[in-house]
């Protein structure tokens, strides 16, 4: 443990021991606030570094309003501190601190503290306008060891405004990401379940019914994986591992295809015809089309020796598109005529026309660039009149 870390740890113990005796603001300053400033290299006995009751002639401020402490580096104010008594809550004092902060462009950090809790602010949202929410909160009665290294960046000799802004931004991102991950793990939504199922190599159509059926299993998997991560991260014999999470021994079964479970991209061979091989690219094409049109759209896939079709309502004469992926330039053909407007959509998407008005797609993901054609194809296949005319003409 470094000397700085040791001093911060001792200060935290000091706050816990004497905090309850600091019943006034002045006592709090002397017993809790100034000692921390000294640890940070801002000696309260050096007026070139710490100025109490600092008056910066703030525009519109009352004559009696002064910031409790202004911290200086190289004769420039860099941090304002508003002090409150140990027993006071800090929620209602930020407007006063923000007035001080906003009036002094040189200041990059504003802090409000009751000696026990410190809240640090900067101006990420609007330059020279103090943010409403702190980017860092330190409670010395329940000190998180991970915050000690962050406090070190507030030391006089290491004080760099831009580095602190980066720290503020990273801290906000870290908190936001942590909240998002925690929320997803506690109550996984449809997108999270879909992501887990796709990463697990489940070869199924991810429609609403399937997602609902596997959501409880994903929750169980989350519990198991978190428990295993905790146990594996503990030093053997150092602490007692938490009790194992109860996992039902017979979870709801999930039907999967006979695709090789060790490789989600493996080809699937038709057991009745070895010449019909459904590739990963073909399956991805179907998944992307389903995502574009919606999980409730009645789509089905049919593979043949010559091409892979995506059908409406499983009817072979109502095919939206036919994909030929075994060429040097894989392409897809649509059931609709290739009008000038549709050709312009293809051109805007950065794609090219191939033989017989097919669309060249080197990757199945490229189909997502032309959703207009996919919706037009669905509209055509959904209209019974289009197929009645053909019957009449025949």
How many E-type strands? 14
β-strand amount: 15-25%
Identify the CATH class of the largest domain. Answer: Alpha Beta
Give the topology string: H per helix, E per strand. Answer: HHEEEHEEEHHHHEEHEEEEHEEHH
Radius of gyration: 32 Å
Organism: Oceanospirillum sediminis
GO molecular function: ATP binding; DNA binding; type I site-specific deoxyribonuclease activity
Region (Disordered): 242-262
Protein name: Type I restriction enzyme HsdR N-terminal domain-containing protein
Describe the fold and architecture.
With 394 residues, the protein is α+β, with helices and mostly antiparallel strands. The protein folds into 3 domains: 3-179, tt1808, chain A (Alpha-Beta Complex), CATH 3.90.1570; 187-230, no CATH class; 268-393. It contains 11 helices and 14 strands. The strands form 3 sheets. A 6-stranded mixed β-sheet has the order 1-2-3-4-5-6. The chain has a 6-stranded antiparallel β-sheet with strand order 9-10-11-12-14-13. A hairpin with a 5-residue loop joins strand 13 and strand 14. It is elongated. Mean pLDDT is 83; it is low at 235-262.
